[in-house]
UniProtKB/TrEMBL annotation:
It comes from the Bacteria. InterPro entries: Amdntrnsf_FN0238 (IPR014541). It comes from Sulfitobacter dubius. This is Amidinotransferase. NCBIfam families: citrull_CtlX. Pfam families: DDAH_eukar (PF19420).
Length: 292
């Protein structure tokens, strides 16, 4: 996780991120306080957090590191090309160096040079990865180049399932991870936002065939970031980390279904959410084995 010091709503991404709201005044201190609250809450339930301070002044979205790198079982790390020019400055090799020091890293596959060819694949924002079914779910956008998606899936042994998704106003969903969250036994998905009914059924069926309880989210719940949750391993079992805004949008039956499989951990991040991302976007997950 990256602690923001110059947080603001990014003007370079506002055109295609319908979840984003313009910053009013200096919001950096509020965002930093929210970040520290999240780190404390995660550590409080036994989740390991490696937090880094943002050292740049021109990286307003640095709090969302899951877009520029991901880790994978077997010791693999991917580094991704970003769509917005100022987001390309977020990549930090000291983060990768820490992973190599603390965990068993076999290789780092760096796709970021493809930015020079105007190609982007924004990590686990553009892709929602089902590590059990080995499926990469992707809402089509210019942040998820299809050629690069195929290359990633070949390198990391995922099957790509791409689809078009639009919000209630007909705007394309900019990142797949605001549309769906895939846990071990439960999945939250804005199925109605997937435009093609056959693709919609395919997504639901592929998630269900691995034994997951598939919870359909409404367009309003997606707008409230209910799809931008993440399942984590805590001291006492699985944790579903989600913003309190998103949790408030869920109905009691949906909450009960989640709680049948994971403890819900609500987090308060209203300032950070103005940048167009929520809890899932703040966390780059660790799927690597620790060194002795």
């Amino acid at each position: 996780m990256i602690r923001p010091h110059h947080f603001r709503s990014n003007p370079e991404t506002q055109a295609d991120n319908a979840f984003q709201r313009a910053s009013v005044g200096d919001v950096a201190e509020a965002a930093r306080a929210e970040f520290d609250h999240v780190v404390t809450a995660l550590r409080g339930v036994g989740i390991t957090v490696h937090d880094f301070d943002d050292t740049g002044t021109e990286t307003p979205d640095s709090v969302f590191p899951n877009n520029w790198f991901s880790t994978h079982a077997g010791g693999h790390v991917a580094v991704y090309p970003m769509y917005a020019a100022n987001r390309r400055r977020e990549r930090r090799w000291d983060v990768i160096d820490l992973l190599k020091t603390r965990y068993r890293v076999q290789d780092v596959i760096d796709y970021s040079g493809l930015e020079h060819d105007d190609l982007a694949l924004e990590g686990t924002g553009a892709m929602v990865l089902d590590h059990i079914g080995r499926v990469a779910y992707v809402a089509r956008s210019h942040r998820a180049d299809p050629i690069l998606l195929e290359r990633f899936c070949t390198n990391f042994n995922f099957e790509p399932i791409a689809f078009d998704a639009h919000d209630a106003q007909g705007r394309p969903v900019y990142h797949t991870n605001v549309l769906m969250a895939v846990g071990t036994k439960v999945a939250l998905v804005g199925l109605d936002l997937i435009s093609d009914s056959k693709r919609r059924d395919m997504v639901r069926d592929r998630l269900a065939e691995t034994g997951r309880d598939v919870i359909a989210l409404t367009a309003h719940q997606i707008d409230e970031f209910a799809g931008n949750a993440i399942e984590l391993d805590g001291d006492d079992g699985l944790i579903m980390a989600i913003s309190d805004r998103a949790l408030a949008a869920l109905d009691p039956d949906q909450v009960a279904r989640i709680e049948a499989h994971a403890r819900i951990l609500p987090l308060t991040i209203p300032t950070i959410e103005t940048a167009g991302g929520s809890v899932r976007c703040m966390i780059a997950g660790l799927h690597l084995a620790r060194r002795n």
